[in-house]
Design a protein that fits this description.
heterotrimer; A mainly beta; B mainly alpha; C alpha+beta; A: mainly beta; Rossmann fold; Neuraminidase; 2 domains; 31 strands; 43% strand; globular; C: 2 domains; 4-stranded mixed beta sheet
Chain lengths: 426, 339, 199
């Protein structure tokens, strides 16, 4: 707060000399989607658009609710570079930023060059060239969206990340563990079972998934390499365990282990060895979550009245209650880079996703419920995905924190549940 | 004399060479000059020779022109023997002519020498005569010089008398001019005095005029200052009225709302963000320059503040012109110092 | 992290288990690209081998969760040949209040009968499957189901059953008895099922 002191010192001096000026105090900003234009990239190789990079970029940005891309049909011109643009035209169209680009090279290995233009400042914010391929053109488009998003918001983009979630087919005949792109495209089944699959969790490097499978007749944690499908149970003694959560260094997993009909938090080293018990209580302890520095473990316990969030040092120690608002706060997930935590909050029978400030314990409810569960943050902390149980149906909800916009991902059949947003992978 | 000799020799030679001489280097195929057919050569040649003999010696040859070619004679056919005789006779004649000519030259040379001798004698006689004449001239010129001296003395006396008279006349004329000049000076002085009096009068008038003008200007300035003072007082009054009646606050509120509606950082306002911006406003309420006086955010934060201001330009018009200011300061957050 | 890459030497022996596992529990692992995640895939030898290499024993003996196979009684309380094995005739499901694991008074007589039956039939084992309704977080509901199963376990032990006869497990909200997002469905899902196992 030293900075704050200096700032006010400056302020205290300034108004005294301000007799010839008008002083206007700004009190707030307005939340609105930034009007942008993503101009279709010109293909220099072939006529038409074999892969429409701009369409994917536009969809990524539009989905966040932070941007309002203008329709292609309303674009008077389709420039491919900054130097071709007449900025006044775009100002008249009320556009603040324009992405232009063109594609050269072969259809197999196209080269994408693009430029982001600040219409009001009249300058180019970003000039980039990316090598793509037929197989990776969607990935390239997501990468472009990442760069644009970062330039326009100051936060790193999350469009190149992946999601993991469980699909349950109608009649619960099959449970599938699926990995897909952040926009829900390219779903890949990495595990299918007639028994329930639960709680997928990404390793920090995005190479492994830990999850719960009931294939042995009870809940058990498995670790699977995503690329190869190789898997093994976490515990050699095959004890009942659930809710796996990776430590930030990827070397250990916190799980809820059920011993003698009592669930407590244990930490398993990935290299083997006997698990370390972190909590010791007759109540339910589950849903562990490591702090970003790996020094603390947040978890849910119903040692009080109803489930609440507690925190305990990762090396063991006394647990402290964290959540106090209401009678049901569970499944903590820490927001990256912020002192906030997403939880499932129940009030009046509605289960909603809430964002709790860890400093003042204030709670802001993000979703309406009534049956929302399993929040998981995007690595940039600007969005979270959750199991959405809305009155309109079930699916995966993606909530964009800065815009308050929610999108629903639904499967062509069955329901999607228990999503986990993967880490940055590049 | 030599020229004459050369001439004679040439004539002799040409006569010996005979007809048909071609100029050296001439085209052998070209017809000889003059253009006569060969068959008539001997005929023509001899006929010409004959004519020459008949008339040439009588008239003497005096030109360099060849003797033939200029005379065309119709030939007469003769028998060979007669011709041979004739030729022989002609040769004899010719030899006699040469001897005669040589004698003639001798005679001419003798005549010339004679003439030269005569001339020498004459010159000697003339020289003697000339010295006699010189003597006589000498005597005459001495007499003349005496007479001239006498004349010159008389003339000098006359000249002196003329000069004395002229001097008297000049002096009288000078006196007259002096008098005339004095009279002119007098007139001029009078005129100058007159002019000076006139100028003094004009200056006095101009000074009066200038004073009047200065007084007028001062009066007007005073009036203008009073009017300006009044206007300013009224403006200040209207401004104060505007402030008291809340018009200024309304105006500021409209500016604030305009900026706020355009300020939309995509992640919301970052915690702890503070900024103070000084704007230069053009007449017409257009924002000209944006200067950050204080700012603690990121480049992205700065961009959205600038965009908000640019989007808000032109700013709302002041409700009364008196509220317009060339500069405007925007600040966030609204917290006052000390709070 | 290192996983056993493959166990080629054991493959012939394991293969039988794997196929059995696929038939019985049907768990398949491995990347299986497909444009539509809803399209059902079949188990591949690769995926099966991986699963087998990683822990086939459990899968092979996973008959406990087979819902289609012969071990499950065709009628609650009766075995395949129609003999009543479910203890006292009547209820095999105990229902719970929301977010509770305490057994309601109405079930005391029934549980007494089961306890007595198990005490009299020491060879008989029973699986106690705890369930929760869909409300709340899946992980917490898993723990809740576990606690409900354990409550029944303790009651039966107190009523004469031996510990070895009882096997308490939880499925949380993963296997609801009734679909639906209302109290009627939820009340049927907050339960412990007593599943008598044939040996």
């Amino acid at each position: 707060m030293k900075l704050r002191g200096i700032f006010f010192a400056i302020l205290a001096v300034l108004p005294l000399t301000a007799s010839a000026q008008l002083d206007v105090v700004i009190t707030r900003s307005t939340q609105r989607a930034i009007p942008i234009a993503v101009v279709p990239f010109e293909w220099r190789v072939t006529l038409g658009l074999p892969y429409d990079f701009a369409e994917i970029v536009e969809a990524d940005l539009e989905r966040t609710g932070q941007f309002a891309p203008m329709g292609r049909e309303t674009m008077i011109t389709r420039p491919t570079r900054f130097s071709e643009m007449r900025l006044t035209n775009w100002r008249i169209m009320d556009v603040e930023a324009v992405l232009v680009g063109h594609v050269s090279g072969s259809e197999e290995n196209p080269t994408v060059e693009f430029e982001l233009v600040d219409v009001y400042a009249g300058k180019s914010l970003l000039v980039y060239r990316l090598q793509s391929s037929r197989e990776a053109f969607r990935a390239t488009a997501h990468r472009i969206a990442d760069l644009v998003y970062e330039q326009l918001t100051g936060a790193r983009g999350m469009f190149s990340t992946r999601l993991a979630y469980v699909q349950v087919t109608p009649g619960r005949e099959e449970f599938r563990l699926i990995v897909a792109d952040a926009d829900g495209q390219n779903p890949i089944v990495v595990l299918r079972s007639t028994d329930p699959i639960m709680s997928p969790s990404w390793s920090p490097d995005g190479a492994y998934l830990a999850y719960v499978s009931f294939e042995a007749g009870h809940a058990e944690v498995f670790v699977q390499e995503v690329a190869t499908g190789q898997r093994r149970p976490l515990s050699p003694d095959r004890t009942s365990a659930s809710a796996p959560a990776w430590s930030p260094d990827g070397r250990s997993l916190a799980v809820a282990r059920n011993v003698n009909a009592n669930s407590d938090i244990y930490i398993y080293s990935i290299d083997g060895g006997s698990p370390q018990r972190l909590t010791r209580h007759s109540a339910v302890e589950t849903e562990p979550e490591f702090s970003a520095d790996g020094n603390r473990v947040y978890f849910t316990s119903d040692r009080g009245i109803g489930p609440q969030v507690y925190v305990v040092p990762a090396r063991g120690g006394r647990a402290q209650r964290v959540s106090f608002t209401g009678s049901y706060n569970a499944r903590p997930r820490l927001q990256p880079d912020r002192n906030q935590m997403a939880i499932v909050h129940q009030q009046d029978g509605r289960f909603r996703i809430g964002l709790m400030d860890l400093r003042d314990e204030s709670l802001r409810l993000l979703t309406d419920g009534p049956l929302d569960e399993s929040p998981s943050f995007a690595p940039n902390g600007r969005a979270l995905i959750f199991g959405a149980g809305t009155t309109a149906g079930r699916g995966l909800g993606v909530y964009f924190i800065d815009s308050g916009v929610m999108r629903l991902l639904r499967a062509p059949e069955g329901i999607l549940r228990e999503p986990a947003w993967g880490p940055y992978e590049n | 004399m030599d020229r004459l000799k050369a001439l004679i020799e040439r004539v002799v030679q040409s006569l010996r060479a005979g007809p048909g001489i071609r100029s050296p280097g001439a085209n052998p195929n070209a017809p000889p000059l003059p253009m006569l057919r060969p068959c008539s050569w001997s005929v023509g040649g001899h006929a010409a020779l004959m004519a020459f003999l008949l008339i040439g010696f009588a008239t003497r040859i005096q030109t360099d022109e060849p003797a033939f070619g200029t005379i065309a004679i119709d030939g007469v056919v003769l028998d060979d023997e007669a011709v041979q005789r004739e030729i022989q006779r002609l040769d004899e004649l010719e030899r006699a002519a040469v001897i005669e000519r040589e004698q003639e030259v001798e005679r001419l040379l003798e005549q010339i020498e004679e003439q030269e001798e005569r001339q020498r004698r004459q010159e000697q006689e003339l020289s003697a005569l000339s010295s006699q004449a010189e003597q006589a001239r000498q005597t005459l010129s001495e007499q003349q010089a005496e007479a001239s001296r006498q004349l010159s003395a008389m003339q000098q006396q006359q000249q002196a008398e003329r000069e004395r008279l002229a001097q008297v006349a000049r002096e009288r004329k000078a006196e007259e001019e002096r008098v005339k000049a004095a009279e002119a000076d007098l007139e001029r002085a009078e005129a100058e005095r007159q002019q000076a009096r006139e100028e003094a009068r004009k200056l006095s008038e101009e000074a009066d005029e200038a004073e009047r003008r200065i007084a007028e200007t001062e009066r007007r300035t005073r009036e203008a200052e009073m009017a300006e003072q009044l206007r300013r007082e009224m403006a200040a009054e209207r401004r104060n009225e505007a402030i008291e009646s809340g018009l200024l606050d309304q105006y500021k509120a409209r500016i604030r709302q305009r900026i706020e509606s355009n300020w939309s950082p995509p992640g919301g306002i970052p915690e702890g963000l503070m900024w103070v911006v000084l704007l230069d406003i053009l007449p017409g309420n257009e924002v000209d320059d944006i200067q950050f006086e204080a700012f603690n955010g990121t480049e992205t934060d700065r961009r959205y503040i600038e965009t908000a201001i640019r989007r808000s330009s032109p700013l709302p018009e002041p409700p009364i012109p008196e509220l317009f200011e060339r500069q405007m300061r925007l600040r966030y957050p609204p917290t006052e110092p000390g709070q | 992290m290192n996983f056993p890459r493959n166990t080629k030497a054991c493959l012939p022996i394991l293969l039988a288990f794997v196929l059995a596992a696929c038939e019985t529990s049907g768990t398949t692992a491995g990347p299986e690209p497909g444009p539509d995640p809803a399209v059902s895939g079949t188990a591949t030898a690769d995926g099966g081998a991986t699963a087998a290499g990683a822990g086939s024993g459990a899968i092979a003996s996973g008959t406990v969760i087979n819902r289609e196979g012969p071990p499950v009684a065709s009628e609650p309380g009766r075995n395949a040949s129609g003999d009543w094995i479910g203890g006292p005739q009547g209820t095999l499901v105990i229902y719970f209040d929301y977010d509770r694991s305490s057994i309601r008074e109405e079930y005391s007589e029934i549980l007494q009968a089961h306890g007595a039956w198990l005490a009299a039939n020491q060879g008989q084992t029973v699986r106690l499957e705890g369930h929760a309704d869909e409300r709340g977080t899946p992980e917490y509901n898993l723990a809740l189901g576990s606690r409900r199963a354990n409550a029944v376990n303790q009651a039966l032990t107190a009523l004469g059953a031996a510990g070895a006869q009882l096997n308490a497990v939880s499925f949380g909200e993963e296997r609801p008895a009734a679909e639906g997002a209302d109290e009627i469905a939820w009340s049927q899902n907050r339960r412990v099922e007593l599943v008598y196992e044939t040996n």
